Amino acid sequence: MSKQTIIQNVIKHSVEGVDKTIVLRAAMANPKLLIRELNNRSFYEFLVYFWPEVSGQVFQANWHVKYFCDELQKIAENLAEGRPKLYDFIANVPPGTTKTIIFSIMFPAWCWSRWYWMKFICISYAEKLSLESADYCRDLIRSDRYHMIYPDIQIKEDKDTKSNFRIVKIEQLRLGKTRKKLGGSRFSTSIGGTLMGFHGHFLIWDDPINPEQSVSTIELETVNRWLDQTLPTRKVDKAVSVTIGIMQRLQQNDPTGHMLEKKKENIKHVCLPGEIDHYADKVKPQSLKKFYVDNLLDPIRLNRAVLADLMADLGQFGYAGQIGQYPTPPSGGMFKVDNFIVANSMPNPIDIVDTVRYWDKAATKENIGGKKTKAAWTVGCKMLKLRNGRWMIVDVKRGRWSTDERERIIKSCAESDGEMVRVFMEQEPGSGGKESAEATTRNLAGFIIKADRPQGDKVYRADPYSVQVNDGNISLLNADWNYEFIEEHRHFPNSTYKDQVDAAAGAFAKLTSKRMVVVW
Questions:
Q1: Residue 219 is assigned to a structural domain of this protein
Q2: Long-range contacts made by residues 315-320, C-beta under 8 angstroms, separation at least 24?
Q3: Residue 22 in this model has a pLDDT that exceeds 50
Q4: Mean pLDDT, the chain, as a whole number?
Q5: Torsions phi, psi of 89, nearest 5?
Q6: Which of 103-107, 148-152, 210-214, 507-511 has the lowest mean pLDDT?
Q7: Same domain flag for 65 and 176
């Protein structure tokens, strides 16, 4: 940044009523003070100036970066004056949009340049990730560039670790005489980690859960409970301290969904989908839509080609959450059922690479607590993997059977399919699911049989399969079961029953997973 540009920016950010000539003279006399003054007045200018210290990439400006910087600056200035907090702040943006640099790395370093006493607690889903952000922040404070502009801000020598470092301010008393004033700190931890004894003016959670964890109901409940019950007790002043959350959406009950479900009035929610072709109504505040270019949040970082690759990699559900910030497919139904291809005959055996039958065994009882219920269905889906890179579903067995009848039908299907067809069954959690799986395994002695304990809910598991259905790569053998099978897919995930989709998704997963090659 040239001196002329810096001077122009300082004048632009000058306080109303201040003589611009005085500002200009001071700037020319001491460029370092000029840069300091500009950075103090604008967190965004601070970020741009110190960007090379935290990233090897050339800084790429986009409106959302300045928007977040301005929001954080407003929150920090309010806290610095000791006023009751404006609101807690939650932001949802796609990955790769500079969120961690803004919120977890640069923001504390900027605050200390003005208010050396501020304390930060920074949280992420994993300790390693949390410490990495802390390390970048610490390196920024130590850098020559930072020291040149803020020689009075240093890290306390005996309190200098990644997980917990403290700031000191060097105060000039008189010529040759200084003193160190103990300042704020940055404590880093992960969800579930220790927080006893630490308090913060700012509690910042940055990606408190990752995509793999989000498919587990237990993991989600653990994260939300920790954010509810542990983190709020670590505020310096409950009326003034601010909680800031930044993440990509992953599930309806992820930390953002959980916090918004409480309907608290003092939460500001900013939601910026990667594109608004499908997610225009998800932008919050809606006034921010005017900044989108060609319906894109960031035409450089998230251009059309990048988004197309992300759709292929993430699947519909993953894309809807991480890019659209709305973890439900945009159409409300995951499957374009008109893209199923109905074939009137079986493929030539030489064109078949692999075959599996996957069973989703009903766990719902006909009678629960003396009340009649609609029992779920047991479904066995037989799927082929073809040499042309496509898949074909050739048989679906579906019924509400007693345990004995169900086991008899499963064995009958195995005998009809043949010994080389691999059989999988979904194992329900708990001892009951384990015992049921063991019973079926004994029943199919002599066949290739394996229990499967899938991760995530039915929507998550169906996502990769749905991409291939929608691309026209899944065919069905013409049969009586086609209608019910297609209709369940048409309304999924809002269909009354999901057993056929679950069985088909399970079969697809087994046909697409890597297998050990066995030589006979």
A1: yes
A2: 315/463, 315/464, 315/466, 315/467, 316/463, 316/466, 316/467, 316/470, 317/459, 317/460, 317/462, 317/463, 317/466, 318/211, 318/463
A3: yes
A4: 87
A5: -125, 125
A6: 210-214
A7: yes
Is residue 473 one of the residues assigned to a domain?
A: yes
Residue 156 belongs to domain with CATH number: 3.40.50.300
**Cβ pair 211, 318 in contact under 8 A:** yes
Tokens for 191?
């969800």
Q: pTM of the full predicted structure?
A: 0.68
Q: How far is CA 114 from the centre of its chain?
A: 32
pLDDT digits (tens, 9 = 90+) for 251-265: 888 999 899 888 888
Structural domain including 152 reads 58-71+81-271
d(CA 327, CA 39): 38
> Hey, CA dihedral for 464, 466, 469, 471, is it positive or negative?
negative
Beta bridge partners of 202: 120, 242
Q: One-letter amino acid identity for 31?
A: P
CB 374 within 8 Å of CB 457: no
pLDDT greater than 60 at residue 519: no
Phi-psi region of 55 (alpha: psi -120 to 50; beta: other; left: phi over 0): beta
Task: Report d(CA 305, CA 20) in Å as an integer.
Answer: 46
Structure tokens at 372: 């009649």
Domain boundary among 271, 290, 318: 271
CATH code, domain with 409: 3.30.420.240
